[in-house]
Amino acid sequence: MDSDVRHQTETVPFVAPSAGSWELDLAHFSPDCSRLVRDAMELAMPKGMEDGLDLVGAPVKTLDAHFLNGRFYRRLVPLVGASRNLPAPPSFVLKLATRIHPEFRAREKRAASTIDGRIWLDELRRWEDEWKPALVANSRRLANIDHADLDDAALADHLLASYEHVTDGLVLHFRLHISDLGPIGLLLVRGRDWGFDSAELMQCLSGYSTATSAPAIALAKIGQALSSPPDSLDDVRADGPDAASALDVFLAEFGNRLTGGYDFTDLTLQEMPATILAGIRASGDTTIDVAARAVGDQTAASLRSQVPAGDQATFDQILEDARLLYGLRDENGPITYQWPAGVMRRVLLHAGERLEASGQLVSAKHVFDLSANEMATILRGEATNTPALTPASIERRYDTRMSWAALDAPRLLGPEPVLPPLAVLPEALAQLMDATLTLLELIDSPISRSALAGIGIGQASYRGRARVVSDAIDALADFEPGDILVTPFTVPTMNSVLAIAGAVVTEEGGLLSHAAVIAREFGIPGVIGASGAVATIPDGALIEVDAATGLVTVIEAVAAKL
């Protein structure tokens, strides 16, 4: 077995894979994440981040990714000295180095040009005019291929083409994160100078992520086209051509996107008809974005009045850019990754069934323990003499992957991260570095947390039934209007369902996480990064979510609804 396969399929010690400080990320993947998603992330995240950071002239090389026993670790890679753990040199040495080292000098010029020229607007134009149309067209094309018409060799080719679509989109996803988050980071940094709280500044962006509310609005249009409440999606189609057309438009746009999480093992929305039906029944409000924008505009006007008169034009421009790119923040993932990944899931399910039927897999679900190239090799009949690809060997990979959840993963591998003081950097590099560090801090869960306490989104409180699961797919399958979703984390494609939630509670994530975006855009109370929420709150319990204090309280524990 080669080293890559060994790394990806066997339990290994929790040891730093290279120099640097590797920090655990719990807000995206569960410990049993599939081989394919691990491969894709380790390839695409460093490449995409490097492309984006280089483009803007950031003083760091990339954000690296590595999986150990299913746990996702990442590290910030410096421009120089990334291959060794060395003590930090004195500040005066760093200051001198950043001004004479060729790479730092080149980055400083690009950083100044980025800030003055607002390069993120160019990235946004390319997204709208070039990248998004191409991605959507390819996702639709691949989704329309009938797998049953393909022989094994053609299915292998289709599988590899679909996976390339996923990885290409994921590289772009991470590149775009530099631009869709950059202006927000600069807003937070300048706002701190003006004495503003980060949560208040983020509230200024409410209503400016049209991608967040788009699925709920599309569901509302289906509901408005119906003459009576439906009991099934067949009832929707039978109600009349307007309702049937609205449903077809919704499914074509959102049906093939991963909805329960970020892994190929997670369901797409079209696999959850009961969830779509619940969304249609509870729909009716097509002005979600209008109400949220009113809150954002009111908050912005209040903060602007507190900005010194000489800085108000700067505030206006930074806020305008942050709002423009904020919409890309929540549109990026669904189109670059979750739609391609949902299309890929359909290929994997068909390939798994075919390989089980031919005796080349013990179970179809073992397809998630193979790399894309391994699956193609098996489908083409080229794995006969490969010990690592026997049905029994692949089954052992599955068993190992399932065992990873029981392992305790340390939060940090390698030395504690030590970052150079911002004062040693030239002005433009210091601004970008400050914004980068601020963003990383606000995406992650708070380091120090009390039980059932986190970051409050909004000012209201809400009482309702808790739908508590470690797997969000289970929650959405039984979700009813007014329920409170309590889950480790949320993903953008849950938007079509969470518009009917009364509140949201997550164990992981920070002020810039997707769950925080949902709460702001839908105007529902949220507590993000609430330690122990999934384990502590009984499913079906009556709970109170207080966004003003960031606290979740169990009012009455009741039996879970079956």
Shape: globular
Roughly what percent helix?
Answer: 40-55%
Sheet-strand content, in percent, reads 5-15%
Low-confidence stretches: none
Helix/strand class:
alpha/beta
Question: How much is the average pLDDT?
Answer: 89
As laid out across the biggest beta sheet, the strand order is: 5-9-8-7-6-10-11
End-to-end separation in angstroms reads: 45 Å
Q: Cα-atom Rg, whole angstroms?
A: 24 Å
Query: Main beta sheet, described?
Result: 7 strands, mixed
The number of distinct helices, counting runs of at least 4 residues, comes to 20
Number of beta-strand segments: 11
Give a description of the structure.
The protein is α/β, with parallel strands linked by helices. It has 20 helices and eleven strands. It has helices at 3-9, 35-56, 91-100, 102-117, 120-143, 152-193, 198-203, 210-225, 233-239, 241-255, 273-281, 288-304, 312-357, 372-379, 391-403, 427-443, 472-477, 495-498, 514-522, 533-536, and strands at 22-25, 60-68, 71-78, 412-413, 455-457, 461-468, 484-487, 503-506, 526-528, 542-546, 551-556. The strands form two sheets. The chain has a seven-stranded mixed beta sheet, with helices on one face. The protein has a four-stranded antiparallel beta sheet with strand order 2-3-1-4. α17 (472-477) links the parallel β6 and β7 (484-487). α2 (35-56) packs across α6 and α3 crosses α4 (102-117). The longest helix is centred in the middle third of the chain and has 46 residues, at 312-357. The protein is globular and about 65 Å long. The mean pLDDT is 89.
